[in-house]
Structure formats: structure tokens, C-alpha cells
Queue: 4 jobs
Job 1
Amino acid sequence: MYQRIQGMTGMTKTFDELMAVYEGREGRGVVFQPRIKHWYDVNLAAGTLPKKYQGMYVDEVYQDLGVTPREVWGPGGAGSEFAGYLHIITEYRTPVGTMRQIQRRTEYGTSLYNVEYYLKDLKDIEVYKYVLRERKYLWKRLRYSWGMKRYGDNLPLRVQLPRSPLMWLMVGTMGFQRTVIMLWRHRKEMEELIRLLEEEFEKMLEVCQG
């Protein structure tokens, strides 16, 4: 059983210091938000969390460190609906074709890496372009309400957008080597794809602003 905390008042000072940096006030240093969720997830799954952090949520660890959380909730963790599966296969079936991705779990099941990327050739790119044109975004009110109830005004609202289009192709959908080769051999098609990915950012931001 995890212990629960009644509010996050211990973070108020840290939050004020963080906002001072964002607002450019004098006498403040850089924002320190260590990215410890993966460390936490792996050690939780392996049973090797330091004794003082056993039974704590990751945000309580952040509180003990005296810093505001960078991330406290992410999909695909050990307790998610994907837990127990070694591979996760995701397939898009559209009027213009099909594309498929295969991801494999790491040793403790806390993260995923691609063993087969969505985009392997020009046919897959056409499918992906269709998906991007048809894709819509919605504000996830339930997650926002959960965050407000747990953290209140102690944490700033943050929007997490995907990587830049080129980096997203290299890491998320195509892989580094294939991205470089496709940019060299099929410049026109790749430039159109990158433009569509840039438009995705606009779609996401419009939802956040609305």
C-alpha cells in the first residue's frame, strides 16, 4: 500500500522560486527539475528504492528533494493496462493502407523501445500523412482535474508536446538511419511530411488555448 499525503504545501516555496525564474526576477538561479521518474519506476519494479522512499509516490520523492516535479504520471508503466506484455503491436488501418509499429518492454517493464518503426517506405508515409490529416485532439479534463485536486496551485500547469518533427521521425516513427536515407532519396515527400508534423503542433496548441 502506498501512503498518501494531504496536499503538497511543502512545495509552495519551491514553486515560488520556480516561478521567479520564469518571470525573470533578480537573484534567482536556473530551474532545477530532475527527471527521476524512470529511475523511480525501475527501482520500484526491482524492489531497490532507497529505504526512505519505499511506500512513497514519485511526487513525494520530489517533495523530499525540495524540487517541483517534472513528471509524475506517464502511460505504459508497470501498473498500466499494458503491464505483462513483452511486445506491444500498434496498427493503423486506413483507406490508403496500413502501417504497423512493434515495441518491446525493457527489463523491468517500465519503458518501451521500438523494434519495428511505423514508417519503412513511401507507402507507409502516405498512410501516416492520412492519419495526421484526420487526427483531432481533445482536452483530457479527467487528468487535469486529478492534477488540480492533488497539487492545487503548488505546481504550474505544463503542456508536454512531442519532439520536433525531425527528431520525432528519428526517435518515434522512422529511426535515425532510415530518416537520413529517406531525406536524401525522397526530399519532396519528406518535406511535406515534416510540414504536416509542424501543423500537428498547431492543432495541439489550439486545443490547449481553447
Job 2
Amino acid sequence: MTFRQILASGVGLTAFVVGGCNYSLRGGSFPDHIQTIAVLPFENETTRLELTQELFDAMSRDLPRALGVQSAAPEVADAVVEGTITGYQLTTPNYRPAAGGDRAEVLQRQVSIAIRVEIIDRVENVILFEGTSLRGEGQYLEQSQTEEEGKAEALETLVQGIVDGAQSNW
């Protein structure tokens, strides 16, 4: 083969490969008419007042990207996310009796956060997703971790639960 034949073959192959890459996948994303979403601060029925901001921050940061849309102000968003924090619970799922028999030794704790949530399509005025009792859980080791780490894991689990629930509807 001559240099020109090799070059022509290379250019043709490159055009074929590049032309074949001209597609995109939107699996699991919102309906096509929804391009923007706004996350509203949730009402909070618990005594843990910081949860409102922490949940808002986690959802604002992760939810639009996971759903394949952009963040927007509530007044102009195609869809909004709203809801209520209904519960916060700290439990001890793993413990053992203490050597002296007085008290149990806590090995692990669990943070559990419960919410009600709706994603509302403001273009067609319909509810895209409704979760009436979503629960996020996060565990942490009593001796080496903090409740904040368990709470962060529970919030992450909640956001993923919203994404999974919303995507299961379309």
C-alpha cells in the first residue's frame, strides 16, 4: 500500500468511528419536556432543626445531576421537589453485655431519617413521583465514628431512594 492509500484508509476509518459516536443516552432521566428542577426546603416535624438545611444541601447538590436536569429557581423550574421530614431516630443495632454486667457496651449505632416527598411536573401539572414513607439509614461505629457520619450516610441513602423511585416511574 502506498502512503496515500494508508492515509485515505485512516481518514475513512476515523470518519466512520466519529460518525458512529453521534448519539446520546438518556436512560432513567426525566421526561423530555423537563429540563430544570428546583428543590424546596422540606418542612421538618422533628426536633433536629439542622436536618432541613442538611437535606436541602444534599438534594440540591446531587438530585439534579442524578436525574439528568439542571437546577433552577422555583419560579422558573419545570419541576419542583418538596416534602416533609417526618422522623429522626438514633438506635443501637449492635451491642454486647459489659464485662461488669452493669451496662451494655455499644458497638454500633444507626441513624434513621424518614421523609415524605413529591416531585411535581409544573409544565403538565402532575405528580411525577410520590414517596410517602422513604427512609434513609446510616450506621457508624461507636468508638471511631460520629453521629454526623451516620447522618450523612442516611441523607445520601435518602437522595438515592428519591432518584430510584422517580426513575422507576418512567
Job 3
Amino acid sequence: MDAAANTDQRRYRRYAIKGDVFIGTKPLFHTVGSLKDFSEGGAGFEYVASNGNPPSRTLEVDILCGKHLRLSRLPCRIAYDITVDRPSSGSIETRRCGLEFGRLSDHQAALLSLILNSSA
């Protein structure tokens, strides 16, 4: 296999999440999951597929970090949504979803930068 094929093609460095950080899709938190990694350009999270309906391809999300930090209404596009654990008969399906951030407001970009700097 070509060495170039194994390299990460992402534009931005991904940061692993320290502690519990949650993400919910808007407007009704139809999907809530655990943030696994993120960057300036996007995020990855895992969620339990409770109703068989994946989030819509474009959406807004809220990211909840601890008691006092909340990134609200981040515009996103779903880059992928895949099964993590294949459910056996009657069990729950866990999925991994990759998000690409859309255009962020100055306030959203500043909060994201604050979180990225504390994770570096």
C-alpha cells in the first residue's frame, strides 16, 4: 500500500476530548451523543441510534463542556454516519458521526478557539 494513502487527509489537527463533553442536534435534541474529537473544522461524536433515523444531512448542534461552557447553534454538515457496534438481536446500535462545521459567528469561533487551546 502506498504510504501517501495512509496519511491523514484532514485540514485541521484533531484534538481528543478530555472529560465528558456532550453534543446535541437542534432544534429538539433529537440526537444526543458524546463528543470524541474535534478541530477548527469539525467534530466526531458517538450516539445511540434509538429510532433508526439518522440526523439530517445539515443541522445545528450545541456542544456542552462542563457546567459553564456551551457552544450553541453551530451550523454543520454530516460528513459520515457509520455503525460502531453491530447490534445483536434486540440490542442497541451505537453510531459514529463526523461533522464539518459551517460558517461560525465571531463569538462561536472564539469559544471554539478557547476549547481547542485548553485541549492542546
Job 4
Amino acid sequence: MGATASSAETHLQMLTEKLNLTEGQRAKLKPILQEQEQQLKAVRDNTSLSPEEKHAKKKAIHESFHEKINGVLTPEQQAKLKEMKQQDAMEKQHQ
């Protein structure tokens, strides 16, 4: 259980720093990030799925939670998050 909580905690901490989240936003995002973490872990632990299926399921989870996370953020924070994701994607391509 320890690792699951810390991963969501780490994610929340990173978003807090980058997006200057308010206490209220943190309180709303924490259960969303924890739920996302649990769903991703369930996919990772599911040995009956092929790597392609796992990738597709993880992508779907990220997309559905992205909507929930955006629902908590201000338009400025949403734009910043989008920018961060694009930079992240570009870094991954260059590795």
C-alpha cells in the first residue's frame, strides 16, 4: 500500500509546486490522483493483458482522469498543465 500512496502524493506535490494549487484544490485532487493510481496499478498487475492492451488501458485511464483533474483547475492552471505534458512528451521522444 505504501508505494501507491506515495506515488499519488508525489504527483500531488509536483502539481502543487508547478501550478500553485490552493488548499481546496489539493483536497479535491488528492482522492482523484489516488484513484488514478489504483486503476493504473490494477492494469500493471493484470497478467492477462498484452503489453499493447496495458498501454491502451493506461492511456484511457490518464485521459479520463485528465478531465477530472482539469475540472478542479483554473483555466490558467489547465494551460500550464497542458504545456507541462507537451514538454514531458517531447523529452520522452528525445531519450
